[in-house]
UniProtKB/TrEMBL annotation:
GO cellular component: cytoplasm
PANTHER family in alphabetical order: IDURONATE 2-SULFATASE (PTHR45953:SF1)
Protein's recorded name: Alkaline phosphatase family protein
Source species of the chain: Pelagibius litoralis
Residue spans of biased composition, Polar residues class: 102-111
Ranges that cross the membrane: none
The UniProt record lists the keyword Hydrolase: yes
InterPro entries noted in UniProt: Alkaline_phosphatase_core_sf, Sulfatase_N
């Protein structure tokens, strides 16, 4: 391997941590990911730090918890003072390239009021140069489809509809494009073309940021029929939506406003997910699994291109996601709140210099904030400022640190800056609309700023259906988990200057 390795960071958006072969999924098949797992290290209990996309990615890219980077929603600016993985690798001598998107909004204090980047949350993370950008309006992909000879309809989004039009409820019908013409294939083609032009001795750095399996939930043949909607485990949810909603005021609010249009193309986009029949949820889930298999196919193309180029043994690969997906559990879809399904995500790391770790499966709790310091260390780069995560390099080497964390943490901010819907419905002020979660092997505690807390005994209630926060028999574990959460926040609050003392001999910095 060259002195500085190539870096390939792959993300697939909205990807549940239990939905891949190495996780032992009973139905889903992911041969390319299985192969990567066998030649890398799989982190089985890896968690995102925040949702939706912009907050989750801010933690992934900066190595900071949400309480420090403060990207709360899509469109919250990322403070320019924070270091990130692209800038760190740039200082190492790389020229980081982006294929896809990063959804990091520019800090308005760093530019002029007429900067067009202030009109969108889809900014490119500082340090990356976009080789192939995918925007929310899908225009780059639509243009690519036109160049391939497609006569696009007046509304190009109609490409996602079956020939017979919008169904009443979700089906597994395919869209009007092939498996070689997905947004995933578009980005893969762009990376493969770019890779062919890179010097064989490197080093290079690329971030391939796939959109799928993010909604809309639709996938082309043959993936739309790859999985039987009747197969798979039962959904994890209460007996009916009303019983589910009774668990907590915020959950009731979410269920009351989660509409079909946010996820699928159906006749009545204003219909609530809670009004769907069982068959609709199963069709969506089978489609979601098909979307993951479609992404798996393109990941196989990425790894094949590395091998054909002679770069396989010179390239560190990180495969992960920004957040998870509810996928019918608790009567809903999407990413929100506190349930594990929205935050448990995949992580596979392959460093070809350390075959002793190949095939390893880590059951310790790891977090999205660990990715940035891991890539910094493995590449020989350095950080400019603190990171809340820890390098996973010992696990990659086949070792386990004796002092590793015993809990996972995440945060969710549900303020609605422009419309104020959550504040009005729940009777909260803007800054009261947040929660923080700590979960260990047995208990999960959810602390709301302006609403009652939640406590789950995951040993007795793995589906998170019984809130024990007010149960006198669980007062001790509730207090213990609340104290751990408070200690975690106190430990990791912004530490940028806190380890420096000004002395007669000048600034002295403590070793962390």
């Amino acid at each position: 391997m060259a002195e500085a390795p190539n870096i390939l960071l792959i993300t697939a958006d909205q990807w549940r941590g239990d939905c891949l072969g190495p996780a032992g999924h009973p139905v889903l098949r992911t041969p390319a990911i299985d192969d990567l797992s066998a030649r890398g290290v799989t982190f089985a209990r890896h968690y995102a730090q925040a949702a939706p996309c912009s907050p989750g990615r801010a933690s992934l890219y900066t190595g900071l918890y949400q309480m420090n980077h403060r990207v709360l929603r899509n469109g919250t600016p990322l403070d320019a003072r924070h270091d990130n993985i692209a800038l760190a690798l740039q200082r190492r001598g790389y020229e980081p390239r982006l294929f896809g998107y990063t959804d990091q909004s520019i800090d308005p204090r760093t530019t002029t009021p007429d900067d067009p980047r202030l009109n969108s949350y889809e900014g490119v993370l500082p340090g990356f140069t976009a080789e192939a950008k995918l925007t929310e309006d899908n225009k780059p992909w639509f243009d690519w489809m036109t160049a391939r000879g497609h006569d696009l309809p007046e509304d190009p989004w109609a490409l996602f509809l079956p020939p017979e039009g919008r169904p009443r409820f979700p089906t597994t019908a395919p869209p009007r494009f092939s498996q070689d013409e997905t947004e995933t294939a578009f980005l893969t083609d762009a990376f493969v073309d770019w890779l062919s032009e890179q010097p064989k001795d490197g080093p290079w750095c690329a971030h391939v940021s796939f959109l799928r399996p993010h909604p809309p939930f639709v996938v082309p043949e043959p993936f739309n029929t790859l999985y039987d909607p009747a197969s798979g485990p039962a959904f994890r949810r209460a007996v009916d939506p009303a019983t589910e909603a009774a668990q907590h005021p915020y959950l009731a609010y979410w269920l009351d406003q989660a509409k079909a249009a946010g996820f699928c193309f159906v006749e009545d986009g204003e219909s609530l997910l809670t009004d769907w029949p069982e068959e609709a949820f199963r069709n969506v889930r089978a489609t979601y699994w098909g979307m993951i298999s479609e992404v798996d196919r393109q990941i196989g193309r990425l790894t094949a291109a590395l091998q054909a180029r002679g770069a396989w043994d010179d390239t560190i690969i990180v495969l992960t996601s920004d957040h998870g997906e509810m996928m019918g559990d608790h009567w809903t879809l999407g990413k929100f709140g506190y349930f594990d399904q929205a935050y448990h995500i995949p992580l596979i790391v392959r460093d070809p210099r350390h075959p002793e770790g190949f095939g390893g499966r880590v059951s310790d709790f790891t977090e999205a904030v660990d990715v940035m310091p891991t890539l910094v260390e493995l590449s020989g780069a350095s950080r400019d400022g603190p990171a809340d995560g820890r390098s996973l390099s010992p696990f990659v080497h086949g070792e386990r640190p004796v002092d590793w964390r015993r809990e996972a943490h995440w945060e969710f901010d549900f303020r609605e800056v422009t419309g104020g819907g959550a504040q009005g419905a729940l009777g909260l002020e803007l800054d009261d609309c947040s929660l923080a979660v700590i979960r260990d092997e047995r208990y999960k505690y959810v602390h709301f700023t302006g609403l009652p807390p939640l406590l789950f005994d995951l040993q007795e209630d793995p589906d998170e259906l019984r809130n024990l926060a007010d149960d006198a028999d669980y007062l001790a574990p509730r207090l213990a988990m609340a104290e751990k959460l408070l200690a975690w926040r106190s430990r990791y609050l912004d530490r940028r200057l806190t380890g420096i003392a000004l002395t007669p001999d000048g600034p002295l910095e403590a070793r962390r």
